Amino acid sequence: MAKRDLVFRIGGAAGDGVSSTAESFAKISARSGLHTWTYSSYQSVIRGGHVWTQIRGGLDPVLSHGVDPDVVVCLNQQTMDVHQGQVSEGGAIVYDTDGTKPDPTKLREKVRLLGIPLRKKAQSLSPNALMRNTVALGAAVRLFDLDFRHVESAFKDIWGDKKPEIVQQNIQAAKLGGDAVGEMGGSLNFGLAYPNEPKYLMTGNEAICLGALAAGVKFLAQYPMTPASSILHWMASHGPPHGVVVKQVEDELAAMNMAVGAGFAGVRSMTATSGGGFSLMVEAIGQAGMTETPLVAILVQRSGPSTGLPTKTEQGDLNLALGAGQGDWPRAILAPRNPEECFRLTAQAFNLAEIYQTPIIVISDLYLGEGYRTVEKPDFNVPIVRGMSAANGAEVKDFKRYRLTESGVSPRAIPGMKGYQFVAATDEHMENSELISDVLAGIPEYVTERNRMHEKRMRKLDGLRKDTPPPELWGPEDADLTLIHWGSTWGAAHEAIQNVEGRGIRVNSLEFPTLFPFHTDATLALLKDVKQSLAIEGNYTGQFTRLLRSETGYKPDHFFGKYDGEPFTWRDIADKILEAVA
Amino acid sequence: MKLEFEMDTYKSEIKPTWCPGCGDFAVLRALQMAIHTLQLEPWNVVIVSGIGCSSNLPHFLSTYGFHAIHGRALPVAEGVKLANPDLQVIVTGGDGDGYGIGVGHFIHAMRRNFDITYLVMNNQIYGLTTGQASPTSEKGMKTKSTPIEGVIENPVDPISLALASGATYVARAFSGDVKGMAELVKNGIDHHGFSLIDCMSPCVTYNKVNTYDFFRERVYDLQKDGHDPSDMKAAFAKAIEWPFVGRDRIPLGLFYRTEKVPTYEDLEPALKKGSPVRQPLGVEDPDELLSEFL
Ligand SMILES: Cc1ncc(C[n+]2csc(CCOP(=O)(O)OP(=O)(O)O)c2C)c(N)n1
Ligand code: SF4
Ligand SMILES: [Mg+2]
Fold first, then answer.
1. B236-247, pLDDT tens digit by residue?
2. How many CB atoms lie within 10 A of CB B212?
3. How far does the centroid of ligand 1 lie from the alpha carbon of residue B126, in Å?
4. Strand ranges (DSSP E) for A75-194?
5. Is B129's C-beta closer than 6 angstroms to any atom of ligand 1?
6. Domain pair A5-198 / A472-581, same fold
């Protein structure tokens, strides 16, 4: 079968410029018209350590960063030691002859070794040794027969018009790399016919930012924490021209509380963090539930517990999101599977937050949040629904902010609206916000009041269940095995299914863009024909699997939990499928 | 001249549930007098509080209010202010709320110099939780949580802390002088920047040391004493008189005020277009925004 994709990997120490070179290659791939997907493995250091990024580009839609690379650039010996054995047959290793040595006994068949004096070549153009990455990049571009004009355009993006001499130097450096490959046997001859039609390339976090902007967000308060920080960075530079106040605050307690204040004051408001920060937000997000204040909270998971593996991925914070806050309060938890869904579900979250006047959590993870993927052009024409306002009809005279209603949603007023003044209260309160907690609690009449108010709030879950996206069954209906998973596992799961299909194994997949409120009836209907199932989650205890069981009584036949910090690959999942059906 | 809003317009239908004699009644009254004097429109005022006896205050006025969780009134108020800077935002709460659990937010709100007025009902005790030590309880004070040796920590001095943190209006008032307090609150609301009014507000139930009499015997008026509130050094000198230097003389009045420092709202780029709550939603030119991704 003719090759339909390419996989490129570059590795070195932190500070070697691996990530910027990888970013350039991803851009080159997307501009060549390839469906592109990246994964960066890095560590919590600024210099040193071992970092690498893999970029996969495909003529057909790609579903994961792939497994074995076709070309690896080794900027140091450690990269060589770790990665040389993984290069696919017919691939190549590019390394600096100055300081790096391959071990030919470790290689697969027909792997070409391209030792190039990267540093020397770079320094022939400028004293800046970082350009050795550019020489290597040029070599890779040549090996894959990619069009050199995309290299130029990528460099122009990075350095802009301000530094034309640096752009020129880098183009020269890349050419030196390409020429070196020419002298050493030329390209890998994969014969990929690049469409050269550019595709949109973005991370899940960027897609969340765009979705928020499309929905009209006006306020973001955040405290830096990997892997959510890029939301703060992107919004800080892009938000203000669109009237978005972006505030780095003293801690995540402040972030959530400020988001609550802004939501109460009437703007579309959000915050973003990872598990550690979300832990600090727990009391305040419950406050939003109690005061019926809309906001959107983005939870980009990383490896826990505690500080955990800050630069590694996991799906271990579902219980945290489900249980955040004392007592019961209505919430929805949406779990995008890819950047398109990051955009769409974030935009939808702002509507749900205002329609139901309660916090909506969007839960993502490092793999989805920080990885680059090509996407269809985001459609900014998203519906905007702002929910029930007291200004449209409710009489000023007998306005009660927490009026008991069938849907649980009461007409909302915001400060500045004349005559609708009320106090949003975190203590249990009555329709007119008067506290039950102080002197009334326990008196029979107010015991009933408390029940009615609590039930009113909780009734919002019925509406949220109807308005959130239902579970989906993907693939053949009469499958021998059904995969059950959520969030970023989607891509690798689909690719594994395609892969085992070639071996005559029919597998489908049950996926949950909404984790809560649980779509019990819809799930039971989809489970009806499941013969055998394999639940896949990036955590130890099967947090979603337990939720599924508690909501439906259904227990998957097999469970595959992964908590090593690395994302699922299609091969991981294919192996488990084979075990399950064996 | 007939005023648009009568004093009573600012009162809500809900009656305070404080113990008779609680200092918080005076703070409520002073705040009501201040917003009455300023003739603020009740629908353009938001009073944010935390949790504590004192934090129940917003319920007793007819403005908008947000009765937040313990210690988080300031960040909630900052969010309100950033979403709609046209609102008059006032924060009220206790010493435990503001100087204890919420002290981090207190410092940061001041260094940002938001145009927010903060009234702390400082009774040097935790009232609502029935009498434990607070961060301003005096050394040696016996409380439910310090029954043997009394408090062995040094108290926080909110005045010095505020001066050091960048507050641009720093005052101390006393519930035994409602008129004086109302004047300080009114000027604080009028001030363009962060105002702290530390209100000594005796808890008649749980603090038997720092009583009305305790204060009456010790307080003096900074302004009558010739203190110059534009002089920060002098303000620090006055601040440390109590509780650092001694407990015989307690200054009341305005320690410090400057209008020279821009507020956070003055500098925030996103507010240049006006109040975010009034801005259109969405993006005018998505293609331009998307061009960097292509
Ligand atoms: C997170 C949290 N911890 C503890 C409490 C219990 N609590 C309620 S009020 C309070 C202290 C109140 O003291 P202060 O702020 O001085 O107010 P006062 O009652 O004296 O006016 C405490 C500890 C709470 N509500 N929330
Ligand atoms: S306990 Fe103290 S602070 Fe609370 S209401 Fe009574 S007197 Fe006031
Ligand atoms: Mg107190």
1. 999 999 999 999
2. 16
3. 6
4. 92-96, 112-116
5. yes
6. no
